[in-house]
Model the fold of this input.
Amino acid sequence: MKKIYFAGSITGGRDDAPIYSKLINYLKTKGKVLTEHLGSSALLDKGEDLSNEEIYNRDCNWIKESDIVIAEVTKPSLGVGYELGLAESLNIKIICLFRDDETTMNRRLSAMVAGNKHNIVIRYKDIDDIILKLNELL
Done:
């Protein structure tokens, strides 16, 4: 079974948690999602009830054992950027999802993500759109 590491903003803001939840539910039909907790409405922007070191070690280990990293990158996040860099250094396939709708009209995707040939960047309008596009890749 394919191991999927899903990345999305936590301390940068949890506005997109409902989207994460729907994406994770979809991804669970494609493999084992190691970071299923990111879709939980109980997870607030203060993070988890673990030390920073525990979270760092756990997440780095999850990335190392994953077959693919799928990151929702609409909301900028230092942690997600770090996770993408680690995945790239391990030559793990990366798919970055960027929502291009009326709520994000003034936002640009970082050139460090969009310009990186290692990343597959998918722009999407809504959850149905991204599921169709992911179906083609997964």
In short: Residues 52-65 form the longest helix (14 residues).
